[in-house]
Write a structure and sequence with these properties.
The complex is a heterodimer of chains A (687) and B (680). Helix content of chain A is 61%, strand content 5%. With 687 residues, chain A is mainly alpha-helical. Chain A has a four-stranded mixed beta sheet with strand order 3-2-6-7. A two-stranded antiparallel ribbon of chain A has the order 1-8. In chain A, strands 4-5 form a two-stranded antiparallel sheet. In chain A, helix 8 runs antiparallel to helix 9. The longest helix of chain A has 43 residues. Chain B has 28 helices and eight strands. In chain B, helix 18 links the parallel strand 2 and strand 3. The chains are: A mainly alpha (687), B mainly alpha (680). At the A-B interface, helix 13 and helix 17 of A face helix 13, helix 16 and helix 17 of B.
């Protein structure tokens, strides 16, 4: 009796209307939310944060004039509230997605009220859709999720207008405005407008059994939404013109080519669509279980699997308990499956249309999974429809859908963790860079030997550096720019020799500099500190011949010893200064060595030694070797030389160079210096 | 009797369908297949015409595996077509064996077992069916196991024939175990199948256990016999597949257990998911490739036919919807165990089946477990035949299409290989013993330097008696390191591979360069080291080149055995080029010109710019500078990057009285500009 009551109580509790929204929120919070305070800015986030720091709505508009001028409302609304606080952006982006999914769930429930099971799974899978892994690039994707939310709000209003005919006019007007705003924000979801007439078709099914009459009514109801759609098309294809001299970055496929070889182009397009379809239908889901990602020693992997498993179990229980259809073979079920097949197919094709007509693909390019946002709803509906049709009963269906959910959750959790680790690396990089370079002369080009870390583009580093070092920058004359030099060689950087102009312009932003006014940076996260290379580093280990050549143009005079502007600090974006580890002492010693403050170098060395701090690579002992030697502490210089040689093989040539540059000092010092110098040269077999 | 009933009652319908499937999938290029990868090892052994050669070599791996070659090679020789047919038939026999045996275990599940067999036929994790000679022993093992299992199960209900069936079955089991140990894990499935079959009798526990032991005991004894052989006698021999797992676990228990658990998880995911989805890879979907359309069309048609046949002509178990679904439970369990025990030999020898193509051999043993698991999982998920057919049909169709595309790749490799060996034979009727033939890289896919060496000895050491090979092939970057410190003259080296031995020196190096389709085979001369853009290693190699190691007038000219290398190709440009280059080697310049002009008159043109070089040299040597210049310009037109090299020919060819022409050529070829780094 007690057990029956208990079961009833649980059943009634799980049947509460708020249970699913809470479950959805919990899943999203577990996946994206737990690390919110440890996440930062990535890739195109930096573009937006940089524009915020320009403090000029005019420049913001000019920047977006190149592709999506009307998108800026998102930033004009959000920047005053969120500023450059990464956690706030994460929260907002998550809320935008949550309410989008929840709105869609509610809308679909109004259309197919007996299909809680399928619609619930749809909402859950959309919330953690494994074809899109960039939720944490919150600033950049706030545009997409704002647009998605507006689209869903517009659908909600349409359904409300259906349910409350008295309010048809105001609700429809509001819905049309929301629809128009979402299209003008970003074109990703324009094609999804196809969902609305189909929903109306299903809504009117009970009311108007006659198909012709129903079609007429649907068209009548849909007409108010054709106006914003037509408005957007007019704007995008007739009114909007790219800035003279530039190409439309989101331009449609070459029409001339289409006319010239229509069959070839049709095959090309068909192939692109087919490839993306296969990816979305199968590989987006199966990639969550890639064998190379199976690692039983990874805590994040365990956390992901366990969380995913529990979430899948909870979801299956919640969704099955309120299920009234039971997935059996009934005509009503068949009609529903056909609805989802047709609507899913239409939403998939129309959702992907803005991508495919620009000759892009989801499967091509590092950041291209963003293109799966449009077709996401359609493909998830198809996947669920297939599982329901192919699966025998709810148990079988729930096992498969639960597995998909579990694996997607674990995959997203691992991805969020990757972003968290990347933010730590970014913080390390910029703080170390700041310790080494307190200020720079305007016009300084940063020649990176390579990209310092992942999840960014080279312009991301440029934006971050300007935000830190140039509180009062001018968009047309940016003081600093970062080049990934090996990639820029031969184009943005004509050659690694002094005296050549280097410039970079992106939209309304411009940097002009010279190969004579650059500093060369080198960084390998986790393996070494940030290193500013100098011409003397020609024989430094781990440098390729091209990087050694690049080091020859590093002009350390661009670095200023003192930061005259208290506003110049990474603290605002990257948080308080990290605890002083080895890299702090190395950076500060290297800076002091540059300005020949040998006492400071030795003091920093002593302090680091007293804290038992040591480098991971021998090169980081070099400023200390020179510093101690210049201070007359030849024995310590010798010991550090030995340590450096021991830690990093192949350092002999570089260390010989250090000691050879000390020759004038050795000359002036006593016999001890000469003896030690000879000993070093002997041991290192210096020429 | 209606036709459909006649078909339905035909016990050979499904086996014949399976035969059609394997023959269409792997045999559609039957006459155009060759030998690949480790096949060449067997071809090489066979060319000794001495059975002891097999024994000597297999002593290093699986000593008793050679019976299949000793039995078959006298019958079919080293004919690629025959080996392809044999391998396809062996695969088919194995599949039919499972069709027969599994239906005795689950008599009401012909439909599902039919799909098991279809999936076995196209199992996408294994892409080496066309390496027919090598894998004949593997498929023989699978066939022997399937037959042995069938005989074992048949004996259960045949008291009269029990002894005969059991002895034959046990012998088949023993033979498969001693042939290759890859499949010993499958023997662990036998008691499970017996258990299920005996359970269906519904006898009391005592009787059941007694009968179970009686039926399994003979096979258990065979297994123990094999264990004695494998762990007693076998370790006394030199080998490279030692079971090292236990040693590793003893050294580092926690770390090794985690590592092996990780490996097991990866292998399970790889074998049950990744391999089956790989044929659907969007990147492979090229709508413009005709070969793709052929394979998709064929795969689609075969799938529809097979699905229809299975749905129409296998017994519909009407109770399947309501009765306890023991099939899926049992088959999922056995499948999973079969998968794990199948990969076991790979794990205990510290190899991994997920390691890609070179590890392909490890995916065969878990094959039956994998397909049983997948089919049973699909059955559990869908139950209804249409839905099951759709899910399994998609997997089957894409796997089949992928296998057909793989066969086409093998066919292309065979064309390339034959082209290479025939051109070499045209250019080099004999090669001096002790010559190391070297290349800058591998000239074609699906064979490595070792296999090319075997093939060369098959051609140039016909009827050889000794394992001391007269010549060997090396990939330049493969020889430096353990064998040679650097590519320098005057260095001796001693190469051993199992029972084979080659003693060479860097003073006896013949360098061959080959790019199928875009050039002929080039025998490199030291002058080629002047080419632009050579890496320092290639340059060093080219400086060692000694074309004189080719004996152009041997007592007996060697030609590739037609049975192995196919008939001599038509004489096109590359034939002419090899003869021109041979004339150059003999400094017979008029002959070189005659051959070139004859080829030119027949409309044959060089494929690469370097093929003009002997012609330019011949014209220069025969005082025809205007023609030499004309051909230099043609060569330059084909490859502007090599302008400096073509210019150098005018300087290095020691002919007096051509100084003015050399200047003219320098101007026409823009040699100074090219030397300054600007391409004309």
């Amino acid at each position: 009796m007690i057990s029956v009551n208990w079961k009833k109580r649980v059943h009634s509790w799980l049947s509460q209307p708020w249970i699913f929204p809470v479950l959805l929120a919990a899943v999203m919070l577990l996946v994206y939310g737990l690390q919110i305070r440890s996440l930062g800015f990535y890739w195109d986030d930096w573009e937006d944060i940089f524009l915020f720091h320009l403090k000029s709505p005019v420049e913001l508009l000019k920047y977006f004039m190149y592709d999506r001028p009307t998108t800026i409302w998102v930033y004009l609304v959000f920047f005053p509230i969120l500023g450059d606080n990464p956690a706030r952006w994460q929260v907002v982006n998550l809320l935008l997605r949550y309410f989008s999914v929840l709105g869609l769930w509610w809308t679909f429930l109004q259309v197919w009220p007996r299909r809680r099971y399928e619609i619930g799974w749809l909402a859950l899978l959309l919330a953690i859709f494994p074809g899109f892994f960039q939720q944490t690039i919150a600033v950049a994707y706030s545009r997409q999720f704002s647009a998605l939310l507006l689209f869903v709000v517009s659908l909600v209003l349409t359904v409300l207008s259906f349910n409350h005919r008295r309010w048809y006019v105001p609700l429809t007007m509001l819905a049309a405005v929301a629809s128009f705003t979402q299209m003008m924000t970003i074109e990703y979801f324009v094609g999804l407008e196809i969902i609305r007439p189909y929903l109306l078709w299903v809504l009117f099914r009970g009311e108007i059994p006659d198909r012709r009459k129903r079609l007429f009514r649907v068209i009548q109801w849909w007409l108010p939404y054709v106006i914003p759609l037509a408005g957007f098309i007019t704007w995008r294809f007739l009114i909007f013109k790219p800035i003279p001299g530039t190409d439309d970055p989101n331009g449609v496929i070459n029409l001339a080519l289409l006319k010239k070889d229509p069959a070839g182009m049709a095959v090309h397009l068909a192939q692109n669509i087919l490839q993306d379809f296969l990816y979305l239908l199968i590989f987006a889901w199966s990639n969550t279980l890639q064998t190379n990602q199976i690692d039983l020693t990874s805590k994040a992997a365990w956390f992901g699997w366990i969380t995913g498993g529990l979430a899948a179990l909870a979801s299956a229980v919640v969704l099955t308990i309120k299920d009234t259809s039971n997935g059996e073979d009934k005509p009503e079920n068949h009609l529903f499956l056909i609805d989802w097949l047709v609507l899913g197919g239409l939403a998939l094709l129309a959702g992907g249309l803005p991508v495919w007509i620009t000759d892009r693909q989801i499967i091509v390019g590092q950041w291209s999974d963003r293109f799966s946002l449009g077709p996401m709803i359609g493909i998830t509906m198809i996947v669920i429809m297939l599982v329901v049709w192919l699966g025998y009963k709810r148990l079988q269906q729930s096992v498969v859908l639960g597995l998909l959910l579990m694996l997607s959750i674990s995959s997203q959790i691992r991805e969020v963790n990757r972003y968290r680790l990347n933010w730590e690396i970014q913080r390390d990089y910029y703080w170390q860079f700041y310790w080494r370079v307190p200020a720079m002369k305007p016009g300084t080009a940063l020649f990176g030997t390579k990209m310092p870390f992942g999840l960014i583009a080279d312009y991301s580093v440029s934006y971050a550096i300007n935000i830190i070092y140039a509180p009062d920058m001018d968009a047309r004359n940016l003081p600093y720019w970062f080049f990934s030099s090996m990639r820029a060689y031969g184009n943005d950087i004509p050659d690694f020799i002094p005296g050549l102009p280097v410039s970079y312009s992106i939209r309304n932003l411009k940097f002009t500099g010279s190969t004579s006014n650059g500093i060369v940076t080198n960084y390998k996260a986790g393996d070494a500190c940030v290193r500013i290379l100098k011409p003397e580093d020609e024989f430094s280990p781990f440098l390729s011949s091209a990087e050694a050549k690049l080091a020859q143009i590093s002009n350390l005079d661009q670095i200023l010893n003192i930061n005259p502007d208290p506003r110049v600090t990474p603290a605002r974006i990257f948080g308080p200064e990290p605890a002083h580890d080895w890299c702090y002492y190395y950076e500060k010693a290297d800076l002091a060595a540059q300005f020949e403050q040998w006492d400071t170098v030795a003091n920093l060395g002593d302090e680091a030694s007293s804290k038992n701090l040591a480098p991971a690579v021998g090169m980081e002992y070099e400023p200390f070797i020179t510093g101690y030697a210049r201070n007359g502490d030849w024995q310590t210089a010798y010991e550090l030389t030995k340590k450096a040689d021991k830690i990093t093989g192949n350092m002999g040539k570089s260390l010989c160079g250090d000691w050879s540059r000390l020759e004038p000092v050795i000359e002036k010092s006593g016999a001890e210096a000469r003896d030690i110098s000879n000993k070093v040269k002997d041991e290192l077999k210096c020429p | 009797m209606k036709l459909t009933d006649r078909v339905k009652n035909n016990r050979w319908l499904i086996p014949l369908t399976l035969l059609g499937v394997v023959f269409i999938t792997y045999g559609y290029q039957l006459s155009r297949m060759g030998f690949y990868w480790d096949d060449w090892e067997i071809i090489y052994l066979d060319h000794f015409n001495n059975q002891k050669a097999y024994w000597d070599l297999f002593l290093y791996g699986n000593p008793l595996t050679n019976w299949i070659y000793l039995m078959l090679s006298p019958l079919i020789g080293m004919n690629p077509l025959a080996w392809q047919i044999v391998n396809i038939l062996l695969r088919w026999v194995g599949i039919v064996g499972f069709w027969w045996a599994l239906r005795m275990v689950w008599p009401k599940r012909s439909f599902e077992i039919g799909w098991v067999c279809l999936l076995l036929a196209v199992y996408p994790a294994f892409s080496r069916q066309s390496m027919a000679v090598t894998y004949a022993r593997h498929f023989a093992c699978i066939a022997l196991f399937a037959m042995s299992l069938g005989l074992n199960l048949l004996a259960l209900d045949n008291k009269r024939w029990w002894w005969l069936l059991t002895v034959t079955g046990a012998f088949a089991s023993l033979l498969q175990l001693i042939t290759l140990e890859y499949f010993f894990g499958l023997e662990l499935l036998r008691p499970l199948f017996l258990w299920i079959r005996l359970k269906q009798r519904g006898e009391n526990r005592k009787k059941f256990l007694k009968e179970f032991i009686r039926q399994w005991l003979p096979y258990l004894l065979v297994l123990l016999l094999f264990a004695g052989y494998r762990f007693g006698w076998y370790p006394l021999m030199p080998r490279n597949n030692t079971p090292v797992l236990l040693q590793q676990i003893a050294q580092n228990p926690t770390g090794e257990i985690i590592r092996i658990a990780n490996q097991i998880l990866k292998d399970v995911a790889h074998l049950t998911i990744e391999n089956w989805l790989a044929p659907l890879d969007p990147g492979e979907f090229d709508l413009r490739a005709k070969a793709n359309w052929l394979s998709w069309g064929t795969a689609g048609s075969i799938t529809l036919i097979c699905a229809w046949l299975l749905m129409k002509f296998t017994k519909q178990d009407e109770k399947s919807g309501n009765e306890r679904d023991t099939f899926s439970r049992e088959a999922i369990l056995i499948g999973l165990i079969g998968l794990l025990v199948g990969v076991n030999p790979a794990w205990i020898t510290a190899a991994q089946s997920t390691g890609g193509d070179p590890r392909d051999q490890f995916v065969l043993a878990p094959m039956i477990g994998v397909v049983l698991f997948i089919t049973a999982a699909v059955h559990w998920f869908s139950r209804r035949r249409l839905q099951q057919s759709i899910l399994l049909g998609v997997l089957f169709a894409f796997a089949l299409s992928s296998q057909m595309q793989t066969v086409n790749k093998y066919r292309l490799s065979r064309d390339t290989q034959n082209d290479f060996y025939w051109q070499l034979a045209w250019r080099a009727p004999a090669i001096k013993p002790g010559t190391a033939v070297m290349g800058t890289g591998l000239p074609f896919d699906l064979a490595n330097d070792l296999h090319i060496a075997f093939a060369l000895n098959t051609i140039y050491d016909q009827n050889g008696k000794s394992h001391d090979a007269p010549l060997w092939y090396f990939k330049a970057d493969g020889i430096t390191g353990s064998l040679l410190p650097a590519l320098q003259p005057g260095k001796d080296f001693d190469y051993r591979h199992q029972s084979t031995h080659f003693k060479g020196t860097t003073d006896k190096v013949l360098v061959a360069e080959y790019q199928y389709g875009t050039s002929c085979l080039h025998i490199i001369t030291t002058e080629d080291s002047q080419r632009t853009g050579l890496s320092s290693e290639d340059s060093k190699l080219f400086k060692l080149a000694k074309p004189d190691l080719i004996n152009l007038h041997p007592a007996k000219a060697f030609t590739p055995p037609v049975s192995t290398f196919g008939p001599e190709p038509e004489h096109g440009w590359c034939y002419a080029y090899q003869k021109i280059d041979s004339a150059r080697q003999q400094q017979n310049w008029p002959e070189a010109i005659r051959l070139f002009e004859e080829a030119d008159a027949n409309g044959l043109k060089p494929k690469s710019a370097f093929e003009y070089v002997p012609v330019i040299q011949a014209y220069l040597r025969t005082d025809q500078p205007e023609k030499a210049l004309a051909d230099s310009l043609k060569a330059q037109e084909m490859d502007k990057d090599q302008t400096t090299y073509f210019c150098s020919l005018w300087k290095t060819t020691p002919v007096s009285g051509l100084e003015d022409w050399a200047k003219k050529a320098g101007t026409a070829l823009k040699c100074d500009e090219a030397a300054g780094g600007k391409l004309p």
